[in-house]
Protein 1
Amino acid sequence: MRPADQRKTAVRRCGTLARLNPALTGRMAGVARRALRTRGARAGDRGLSTVEVVILAPVMILFILVLVGFGQLVDGRGAVDGAARDAARAGSIQHDYGVAMSEARKAAAADLEDVCVGSVDVRMTGSRFEPGGFFKVEVSCEVRGLDMIGLDIGSTVKATASSPIDPYRRAS
């Protein structure tokens, strides 16, 4: 609507209200003037909110994606810690070293099935596999994280856990 049309509309509204209640004439004229002034001031700001959305929306979306990526890294870290604990316990109750490593790998793979991108690496870091010792394993895998937004930041997560080798473990 052009400013001239806006003025005519405001004057028409004031005239209608003045006929209904003559006491409102002075107040309504002031309201109409103020309305015209504010509309004129806003005319230069037309489209500004569109520019703000175009600039701020991608920044906000990127910020949310970074938060989600870091959340996946933290979740992956917790899952790998739990998998290392489970792998150490599964291996410590076995009678033979080969079976112990096999069970440790199975336990870690089952825990990290939906967390890791590639394969799960399980290796024994202790020196001996005998009663009274400790079965110590290190579990590592690559976790989804900031790769989803294109940042190739190292997201390989490692965790170490140990469990005492059970003196009353299974006999083969």
Note: The chain has a mean pLDDT of 78.
Protein 2
Amino acid sequence: MSAVLADVEQNRVFSWTNTASTGTENEHPDGEMATINQRSIAYHLGYCEVKVSEGDSSSVYLHYDMLRLARFGKKLCHNEDLRGSLLVMAVGFRVRFFILTRNKPFDTMFEIANMELPKSLSTLASFTSNVHKIKQILQAYYTHCTKEPEISLKRKKESSMTKNDIQQVINTSKPKKMKASLSFK
């Protein structure tokens, strides 16, 4: 993903961090997209969460990561005054790309693409059919993940859900036979 989302000419970088950054409080996203000014980060543009495989994670943890990613994106848009943020959720070899945009009265997060990454060199040829999806992701990334015009800087910064609020929303006592509503197959 670093090769796709990083662009030296546009001063955009992608890095695997697992550190706290803008709007993440004491939580740590696995990766982040940002713009750089010389050698330091000017502002962040999006975040990435990764799970090794769906079999290793329960649906509760997948839902929690998805809500956390949405919360990171919302806080990022409001704290950095961005039009939108790019959010990436990778589970195993399945990668889903989302854009979170600011709209009144609600912020909207929607999936812009999903794809299966190649598992070996033999499946690399079939992956080339996803070039148009990658172009669409980059178009959305450069169009929506930008600063708001100066006029909107006076807008009130709204708070997002806290970690405790998310814990109240998620039902952690899921019945064992219940199927996950998020699927990364």
Note: Residues 2-169 form a domain with the tt1808, chain A fold (CATH 3.90.1570).
